[in-house]
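Protein of interest.
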Amino acid sequence: MSKVFAAQLLGLPVFGPDGESIGKIRDLVAGLRVDGQPPRVLGIVVELATRRRIFVPMLRVASIEPNAITLATGSVNLRHFTQRPNEVLVVGQLLDARVEVVSTGASAVVVDTAMEPTRTRDWVLGRVAIRERTGRLGRRGPIEVLAWSQIRAPGITELTGQPQAAHQLLAVFDTMRAADVATALQNLPVKRRYEVADALDDERLADVIEELPEDDQKDLLRHLDEERAADVLEAMDPDDAADLLAELPEGDKNRLLELMAPEESAPVRRLLAYSSDTAGGLMTPEPIVLTPDAPIAEALARVRTPDIPPALASMVFVCRPPSATPTGRYLGCVHIQRLLREPPFELVAGAVDTELTSLRPTDSLIEVTRFFATYNLVCAPVVDDEDHLVGAVTVDDVLDHLLPDNWRERASEPEDADA
């Protein structure tokens, strides 16, 4: 669906991928902004049969139909939903909120909001249904649907309960790359840094933590309560989550792994079995994997996914089922340049590079570096002794381990004007 009004979703049943009943939708959770951009829909509040209300991120929503919502996974986090700073309940708080129409200055009330998908697979509250306040007793103005940019909500800070200074920071950070936000966070007072971390949604905070120096990563993780810390670790890339967990005391590490959803903690546990300076410790367990009967068009669609880093999108791996790591027998890889040269209807099997050797999980950092230099790659397969693809190493992770431990701190320091 291209546009969904919030009020239409209330009470709709929520199902897992196999048709199992999860519960009913009770609200939407959005992150409000003060820079005029539409709020991003973070997820849905689902009421289980036990009347317990839980939060399901939008990334877990596979489809929204007029009569039901289907999730991409039947495994959901059963922790009780708790609203966080900078979050607003769309039905519970945003509807009936007073706003102003930018073009006329007229006062109005929000009757409904419509969420729309973006090119980056996010959902935003792009449209707002309002009713102007006429001031006449017994009279109600007509309903008008406007773009979010056409209204002004003076009470936005009060809705979120977020201090104005932190709120302004969040608006600025929302337009910045995660690495730049991480640098800015390092220069903030500790109290303000924690306020920003509390207000960021899990996915955004995970992106930022991945870009922080190790000590700052551990400091922010310790600031979060354990349940939130587990949620953020779930949202991180498995290799980055494993690197961070490996630096924690054994008890803390095991507790957080237990709090993570099993399907999220499983790949992290596999990575923790390897030393951090080996191919197994460097790799991500979530490369792009296709079966040999997949068409080139499907491969191109996968590499175009905005969430996939450019280095990881430079290569797809062809394996026998299953496609999740560890896969079936590894057959080879297809470089993105080859994909662009082949007709979309051809099968990836006909474009497989079977000549390129692969890394082993136990290969050292020096061996991995030589492999990348020898073959001029930005991504490389990691295959075990039984010919199962277990992951892929990307050049950014290699550089991260080759650079001095404090390179992130140095990047955040201002350059000496006299140098």
Observations:
- The chain has three domains: 1-155, 176-273, 289-402.
- Residues 176-273 form a domain with the MgtE N-terminal fold fold (CATH 1.25.60.10).
- Residues 414-419 have pLDDT under 50 and may be disordered.
- The radius of gyration is 24 Å.
